[in-house]
Amino acid sequence: MTAAAAPLIAGVEMGGTKCNCILASGPDDIRDTVRIPTTTPAETLGAIEAVLTRWAGFDALGIASFGPVALDRAAPDYGFITATTKPGWSNTDVAMRLARHAGVPMAFQSDVVGAALGEGRWGAAQGLADFAYITVGTGVGVGLVAGNVPIAGELGHVRTVRMAGDDWPGICTFHGDCVEGLASGPAIAARAGAPASDLPKGHPAWDATAHTLAQLLHTLVLTGIPRRIVMGGGVMTGVPHLFPMIRSRLAESLGGYAALPELSDLDSFVVPPALGNDAGPLGAIELGVRALASAALE
């Protein structure tokens, strides 16, 4: 199918600081992009609705949102942002409000699953049915896909084996020393006293960060699902020396136990995103494509 004949999708990637709206059929056919600051729900969602009104004529809507989000279609709060740390956004109807406004088929997922689906369709996990996308930035999130189907979860908040001698308490307001509490951008800054982007390569904070993230990957490997793990977000894209550190600590942690053939080449198993910062917006486009496919079966 040519880009001109492909369905035109409106995608919305909602983040804690900004929302990216995109009108496209894929990465080679992007018609328009709009960035909207994430302020109050009323102001932000109203601005998104204004963009969708201007784009009238698209075939479907895909929404990938910061969360936690409610994904059970049978639940009364489906499409809501639930108990979030973002002030004013807890228990906010996002998906159904925007779907009612757009009047087209809609699919809704977390922002990290959206990025995973984007990388699976057009990026570093292209051609794979089983993979994971990890974002390490303001928070830590995991988008796990098995058989091309997203698996809901909050793996960024698992507790892992701590690095020997490290008793720093972490900053997660719910769990303290979960992965997000130890390895997110704010956690690195709190531990080191400076933003991650300002820390030199040999700073001791990187050892603890790499250890924690490798433990998260260890957990994912033992699920038997991902044939590749893509790691993005501001911390990973801004600190490329983290990749070899994480791969080395993952190999040490696994100790040869997992027998997946992909683990014989960790440089190809743990990789950066091919789509860069476009993974999330393009993932919202893929969600819209999936919404159309689901509507056709109903």
SSE map:
Layout: E1 9-14, E2 18-26, E3 29-37, H1 41-54, E4 60-65, E5 80-81, E6 92-93, H2 95-102, E7 106-110, H3 111-122, E8 131-136, E9 140-146, E10 149-151, H4 179-183, H5 185-192, H6 204-222, E11 229-232, H7 234-238, H8 242-254, H9 266-269, E12 270-271, H10 279-297
Parallel strand pairs: 1-4, 4-7, 8-11, 11-12
Antiparallel strand pairs: 1-2, 2-3, 5-6, 8-9, 9-10
Helix pairs in contact: 3-10, 6-8
Describe this protein's structure.
There is one protein chain. The protein has 298 residues and is of the alpha/beta class. The protein is built from 10 helices and 12 strands. It has helices spanning 41-54, 95-102, 111-122, 179-183, 185-192, 204-222, 234-238, 242-254, 266-269, 279-297, and strands at 9-14, 18-26, 29-37, 60-65, 80-81, 92-93, 106-110, 131-136, 140-146, 149-151, 229-232, 270-271. Strands 3-2-1-4-7 form a 5-stranded mixed sheet, sandwiched between helices. The protein has a 5-stranded mixed sheet with strand order 10-9-8-11-12. Strand 1 (9-14) and strand 2 (18-26) form a beta hairpin. The mean pLDDT is 94.
